[in-house]
């Protein structure tokens, strides 16, 4: 029987070097996962917990229909962002006001997935709480965690990850071949060959190699770091220096575990082998989270002993010493410190007394990056800036955290968060920026009306479909201590301007979540500040947000009037991005009011401005709504092409909300002429709205209702529902291809299969039975206990009225449910 391999979803990084050994540990983790919902790998830093977890995840990828996902937590410093980090990893773009944990549990409720939580030790309590909550809500979810401590969750299975097996002296002296059976020796040989081609463990060096890996206690990271030294040393020289260094170490802290002493000693030794400037750079690089580029290193780390033009050579030196890892491709190069090495550098930085100064420099660099990104957003480099900011998300969080936790820095934090308004919305993230803005506004100085308290969840309807960006109001300069009354007044005005802009951005985000009452409170405070400052730019922002709120609440006439005021204000203050952004919604309001000429004029003006600037983001949203207006005027073919062009423009941003809006519009356009296609698109669209935890329409609900009713009438209820179900079963990629006419129409499922009495899991097991798999093999493939697999097979036999596995196989074949057949 010829079988087609199932499509698997494996969201793990590619292995950059070979995986050595750990066969027993891999088998044991798989065994534990077959019975337990949560398995935690524990061990000292550098012992290889992460690589082991990733390898197990890769091996089990076919057992999890909804994928294997890795959540890297090492660079996450704020416990409050743990759930957000998991949602980002799972590509959940939520725009609702529901608590994040509710959104996450709802997303995972029916998923069969393996979630790897890597490096939990610094977020132990939070990881334990999240893991327990998710397991209660999602019965088919498995969690594999790595940590230096157990999570302490009921039902947790703990597996200590030991160092690699080591030879004793008798084995080392007996045979080179027998020595090579030990994983520690194999790892040392493999990594040595990567830096010294042709290296082999021979009769001449085997005793020294065995002593080296024994001195390093079989810790993989220690072995890898030691192997790098063979670029400059012989095996015997390496052993001699390890011996000397470790004899000195025995006089250190006796309370630390020996392996921790050993790993620390090895990093100490690597540190000692660096030049003074390399050590200085190593310590300073530790302020970065999630990596960095060369430009950032030059600006943050230069000075006080390192000239800017020396940084590149020092970086090259640290890469050569395996302190820095090079990432990226030929066009985009980034660097990352392994977490153990970064923490070591942070300790050295703290001891030097320079940590506060370097964190301030780091904050200044990313404040400047955010400001530049804001200025360049409306232009030809928009996609490049989006990708750059996305790569720096960890550093942005660190900069904001510094501003939040350092007295007197809240205003600077507000400026950063406000400047990132385009980035936040383009990523589909509303909750995180609102959280930063709430906390920074509460921590900031009182300027004008009293600062409002941090916002909590507010009951109300989920957001409508508006996905937009803000106008380009300026970021206020950094605020420092006043010098004299005049300067003091200027600084106070600057702080008030920052606060007003932050209130407007936070209100905008609240409106997009339909949190209208809280948005109104924020806008009232911003309005008072604008009066004090006599600032027309802030007034324009307030008019825009009020107009958007009116539109989402279906006060179309009121929205049009407010948006007209905003356009005039943006023109007066020379804010072209604000003009383009507002024209989109003003044109939409005119379209809904039945003013086609006014709507088309404003759509065209917005498009011309976007094309002149080579903009992608605003142009894609303008095309989306302009296409709807063109469709209403009867040009279906032209409207469809506009929607597809909008989708193409959205793809570099992975703008799933915007793409869903376009797919929805394409369904409307197909309702009359090709109702079956419309039904499939409606189904695909519904699945996308589920991922946003929000209904799709808001002020456009009339278009949806009328188009769906028309498609049902044209197609008939039964055929519409069948086509709609096919749409819900499309993967996001298949739905996109179908909308773009890049794939054939989805095949219809067999009628018998639709009427199957089996559950989803029983259907899956029936397929495996039909493929000839035993209960034991099924249990292994699905990561369940063998007795559970046996129970499922018994249920299948009972439901179908069969007596043998052969009858199950024949039934599955008749339904067309074997791989490569009908769905």
Automatic annotation (TrEMBL):
Region (Disordered) residue spans: 447-486
Molecular-function annotations in GO: ADP binding; DNA binding; protein serine/threonine kinase activity
EC class of the enzyme, as a word: transferase
EC number: 2.7.11.1
PANTHER family, alphabetized: HTH-TYPE TRANSCRIPTIONAL REGULATOR RV0890C-RELATED, REGULATOR-RELATED
Pfam family, one: GerE
Top-level division of the source organism's lineage: Bacteria
Keyword Lipoprotein in record: no
Stated name of the protein: Non-specific serine/threonine protein kinase
SMART domains from the UniProt entry: HTH_LUXR
Domain HTH luxR-type: 751-816
Biased composition (Low complexity): 465-486
Record flagged with keyword Lipid biosynthesis: no
Keywords annotated in UniProt: Kinase, Serine/threonine-protein kinase, Transferase
GO biological process assignments: regulation of DNA-templated transcription
Regions of compositional bias (Pro residues) in chain numbering: 451-464
């Amino acid at each position: 029987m010829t079988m087609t391999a199932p499509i698997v979803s494996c969201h793990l990084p590619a292995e950059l070097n070979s995986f050595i050994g750990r066969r027993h540990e891999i088998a044991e983790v798989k065994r534990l996962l077959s019975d337990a919902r949560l398995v935690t790998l524990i061990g000292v830093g550098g012992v290889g917990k992460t690589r082991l977890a990733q390898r197990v995840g890769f091996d089990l990828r076919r057992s999890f229909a909804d994928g294997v996902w890795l959540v890297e937590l090492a660079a996450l410093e704020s416990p409050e962002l743990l759930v957000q980090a998991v949602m980002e990893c799972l590509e959940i773009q939520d725009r609702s006001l529901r608590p994040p944990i509710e959104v996450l549990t709802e997303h995972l409720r029916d998923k069969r997935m393996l979630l790897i939580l890597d490096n939990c030790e610094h977020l132990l309590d939070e990881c334990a709480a999240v893991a327990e909550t998710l397991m209660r809500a999602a019965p088919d979810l498995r969690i594999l965690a790595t940590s230096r401590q157990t999570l302490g969750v009921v039902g947790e299975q703990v597996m200590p990850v030991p160092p690699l097996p080591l030879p004793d002296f008798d084995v080392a002296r007996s045979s080179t071949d027998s020595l090579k059976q030990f994983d520690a020796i194999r790892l040392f040989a493999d990594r040595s060959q990567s830096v010294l081609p042709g290296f082999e463990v021979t009769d001449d060096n085997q005793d020294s190699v065995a002593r080296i890996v024994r001195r390093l206690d079989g810790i993989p990271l220690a072995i890898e770091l030691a192997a790098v030294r063979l670029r400059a040393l012989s095996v015997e020289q390496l052993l001699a220096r390890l011996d000397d260094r470790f004899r000195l170490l025995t006089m250190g802290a006796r309370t630390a575990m020996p392996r921790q002493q050993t790993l620390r000693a090895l990093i100490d030794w690597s540190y000692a082998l660096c030049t003074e400037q390399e050590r200085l750079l190593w310590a300073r690089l530790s302020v970065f989270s999630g990596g960095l580029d060369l430009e950032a290193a030059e600006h943050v780390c230069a000075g006080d002993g390192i000239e800017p033009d020396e940084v590149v050579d020092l970086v090259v030196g640290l890469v050569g010493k395996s302190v820095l890892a090079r990432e990226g491709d030929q066009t985009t190069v980034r660097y990352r410190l392994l977490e153990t090495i970064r923490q070591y550098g942070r300790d050295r930085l703290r001891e030097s007394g320079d940590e506060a100064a370097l964190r301030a420099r780091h904050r200044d660099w990313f404040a400047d990056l955010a400001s530049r990104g804001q200025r360049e957003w409306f232009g030809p480099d928009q996609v490049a800036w989006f990708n750059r900011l996305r790569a720096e998300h960890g550093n942005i969080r660190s900069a904001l955290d510094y501003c939040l936790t350092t007295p007197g820095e809240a205003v600077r934090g507000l400026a950063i968060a406000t400047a990132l308004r385009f980035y936040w919305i383009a990523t589909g993230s509303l909750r995180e920026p609102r959280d930063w803005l709430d906390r920074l506004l509460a921590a900031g100085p009182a300027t004008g009306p009293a600062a409002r308290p941090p916002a909590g969840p507010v009951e109300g309807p989920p957001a409508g479909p508006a996905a937009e960006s803000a106008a380009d109001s300026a970021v206020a300069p950094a605020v420092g201590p006043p010098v004299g009354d005049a300067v003091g007044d200027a600084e106070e005005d600057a702080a008030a301007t920052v606060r007003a802009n932050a209130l407007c951005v936070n209100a905008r985000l609240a409106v997009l979540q339909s949190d209208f009452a809280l948005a109104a409170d924020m806008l009232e405070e911003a309005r008072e500040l604008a009066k004090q400052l006599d600032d027309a730019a802030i007034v324009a922002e307030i008019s825009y947000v009020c107009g958007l709120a009116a539109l989402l609440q279906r006060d179309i006439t009121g929205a049009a009037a407010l948006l007209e005021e905003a356009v005039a204000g943006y023109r007066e203050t020379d804010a072209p991005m604000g003009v383009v952004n507002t024209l989109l919604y003003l044109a939409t309001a005119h379209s809904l009011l039945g003013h086609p000429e006014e709507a088309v004029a404003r759509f065209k003006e917005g498009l011309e401005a976007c094309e002149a600037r080579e903009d992608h983001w605003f142009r894609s949203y303008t095309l989306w709504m302009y296409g709807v207006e063109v469709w209403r005027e009867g040009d279906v073919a032209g409207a469809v092409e506009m929607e597809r062009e909008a989708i193409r423009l959205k793809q570099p941003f992975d703008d799933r909300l915007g793409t869903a809006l376009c797919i929805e519009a394409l369904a409307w356009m197909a309702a009359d002429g090709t109702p079956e296609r419309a039904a499939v698109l409606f189904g695909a669209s519904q699945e996308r709205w589920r991922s946003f935890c929000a209904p799709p329409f808001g002020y456009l609900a009339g278009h949806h209702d009328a188009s769906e009713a028309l498609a049902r009438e044209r197609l008939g209820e039964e055929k519409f529902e069948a086509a709609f179900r096919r749409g819900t079963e499309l993967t996001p990629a298949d739905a996109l291809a179908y909308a773009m006419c890049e794939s054939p129409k989805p095949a219809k499922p067999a009628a018998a299969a639709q009427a199957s009495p089996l559950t989803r899991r029983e259907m899956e097991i029936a397929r495996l039975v039909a493929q000839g798999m035993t209960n034991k093999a099924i249990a292994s493939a699905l990561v369940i206990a063998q007795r559970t697999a046996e129970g499922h097979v018994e249920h299948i036999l009972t439901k179908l009225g069969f007596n043998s596995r052969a009858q199950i196989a024949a039934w599955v074949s008749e339904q067309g449910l074997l791989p490569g057949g009908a769905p």
